[in-house]
Amino acid sequence: xxxxxxxxxxxxxxxxxxxxxxxxxxxxxxxxxxxxxxxxxxxxxxxxxxxxxxxxxxxxxxxxxxxxxxxxxxxxxxxxxxxxxxxxxxxxxxxxxxxxxxxxxxxxxxxxxxxxxxxxxxxxxxxxxxxxxxxxxxxxxxxxxxxxxxxxxxxxxxxxxxxxxxxxxxxxxxxxxxxxxxxxxxxxxxxxxxxxxxxxxxxxxxxxxxxxxxxxxxxxxxxxxxxxxxxxxxxxxxxxxxxxxxxxxxxxxxxxxxxxxxxxxxxxxxxxxxxxxxxxxxxxxxxxxxxxxxxxxxxxxxxxxxxxxxxx
Length: 312
Fold this sequence. Notes:
Structural class: alpha+beta
Strand content: 25-35%
Oligomer: single chain
Largest sheet: 14 strands, mixed
Order of helices and strands: EHEHEHEHHEEEHHHEEEEEEHEEE
CATH class of the largest domain: Mainly Beta
Number of helices: 9
CATH architecture of the largest domain: Sandwich
CATH topology of the largest domain: Tumour Suppressor Smad4
Shape: globular
Number of strands: 16
């Protein structure tokens, strides 16, 4: 029986109060469980840091990707293990590692994996000293996340339709894609100085459209360093082609003539031609003029569902 802290985000879009009670009871049948709720941005990080300092063996995140990111930032570098339960609208990271996209069913997968000792030490990305689990979006998608976050509670109910509407709005009017926005400097000295949009990935897929993964870079994986895509053109036809290629697995996207792809990067730098928006694991962090990105290996213990237990 392990000491386990369950950190729940009460604003998570797909977790009801009843589901939280059911999950806590299921976890408590096998483990010594403490349940806490987040109340503000950054709270989950501080709760996870406290749990790691106190010797708690497992911290379980119950929320969306933003909550998972905060918990991971609190646990990185410690011996405490992260467990992930999907509670948000998209749950990119939970689904990437093979969790079923239902918090109650995923609790069974988590318990089975813990019983089997299915824990892997993984590497994380770092951007300006903040860790990320799966990606940093630079430019357009950060603007889309900003527009979605402006809608507040509507995000809980509108889900993917809201993201689609904000994506169209950002592309058509609120994000300036008419000129280069930043330069990307790779470790080998090559520079892409005319990028309008960028994705730095620690895993693949980039996100999900309903049940369909949007696989932007098949060279991105949790067990290897970072992969970077720099997009030089966001006009209508190229953008539609990118989306189609990503839905088909991303193999053609990384070879597109308007895209520069590099992978197995241990560090890289993005320098703006003026301020540009960026987001980390789906959390809009405002504007920046420089991003220093790095891969930090073997920094987080993560519960991985066993293939024979996964339903996703």
